[in-house]
Amino acid sequence: MVQHPGVDKVSFTGSTEVGRHVGQVAGERIAHVSLELGGKNPSIVFPDAIEDDDLIANLLLSSRVHRQGQSCTAGSRLFLHRDIYDEVLARLVETLGSQVVGNPLDEATDIGAIINEKQFASVTGFVEDGIDTDGIDVALDGSARVFDDKTGYYMAPTVFAGADNQWRLSREEIFGPVVVVIPWSDENEVIEMANDSNYGLAAYVWTHDLDRALKTAHALEAGWVQINQGGGQLPGQSYGGYKQSGIGREASLEGMIAGFTQTKQINVKLRNN
Q1: Going from the N-terminus, what domains does the chain have, and what CATH number goes with each?
Q2: DSSP string spanning 52-110?
Q3: Which residues, other chains included, contact 266 with Cβ-Cβ below 8 Å and sequence gap of 6+?
Q4: Catalytic residue among 17, 28, 36, 221
Q5: How much is the pLDDT for 272?
Q6: Which residues are CB-neighbours of 6 under 8 A, at least 6 positions away?
Q7: Which end of the chain is more exposed for a tag (fewer CB within 10 A), N or C?
Q8: Which of 17, 28, 51, 72 is catalytic?
Q9: Averaged pLDDT for residues 251-271
């Protein structure tokens, strides 16, 4: 389809690896293309955010563990300020550790199955790599929970704490219920770490200081930034990423005009009568 001359525009949503190939093939015939690809999204928590009783619930929404972490906008890199690091981490681990994993058709279930065996093996590989690496603190080991249900590939949440932004776990998109927690002290430092990524799809900022929130949001290299919330995208909002998270925008008027229409200039000179 990407190669077919009858296809004027290709819009692809998926992994960065496949998106890169789609872009290369489309480029051979100069076809228009938009790509919505992967993410390794930062979630930055300032000290005053701990005043919000719903902080942990919102962090769960932003990390998308209820989709088993299978979301390109998952806030899988959690940057906690050192002043609140221990308290928020403990609350997060306690909440994630109590999540019910099982059949998604059961209303009691919080976390369902990984999409297929291949993805399950990939996520498991990341978790095993983190557990086996010296210096990595496994705050919550989801792989230690054994599931007897043979109807799918189930995995409980895993949390790696005290992380370094240069770890493989911090750099690559895992696409599973895995959160990497990174401590920080300086605002410039955390923005630099957040932007130190090949991706730039989404980002999350948690603070009740609006000036600080907007300053941080503008400094982040991400196409979609949420402040004090971790829910889904609203209809009509622009959606798309920086860097290897994609090309173009979707789900908005500007995206439809720029991405799915052509501009034509027509100049007419009338004969003098």
Answers
A1: 9-37+245-260 (no CATH), 42-227 (3.40.309.10)
A2: -TTHHHHHHHHHTGGGTT--TT---EEEEETTTHHHHHHHHHHHHHT--BS-TTSTT-S
A3: none
A4: 36
A5: 82
A6: none
A7: C
A8: 72
A9: 89
Q: Is 173 a catalytic residue?
A: no
Question: Rounded CA gap, 68 and 114, in Å?
Answer: 6
Closest CA to 17 of 38, 39, 42: 38
pLDDT band at 124 (very low <50, low <70, confident <90, very high): very high
Here the contacts of 93-99 (C-beta below 8 Å, separation 24 or greater) are 93/139, 93/140, 93/159, 95/56, 95/57, 95/60, 96/60, 96/65, 96/140, 96/157, 96/159, 96/179, 97/140, 97/156, 97/157, 99/65, 99/156, 99/157
Tell me if residue 172 is catalytic.
no
Confidence band for 273, pLDDT divided at 50, 70 and 90: low
Report pLDDT digits (tens) over 216-237: 999 999 999 999 998 777 888 8
pTM of the complete model: 0.93
- What are the backbone angles phi and psi of residue 118, rounded to the nearest 5°? -60, -45
State the chain's mean pLDDT as an integer: 93
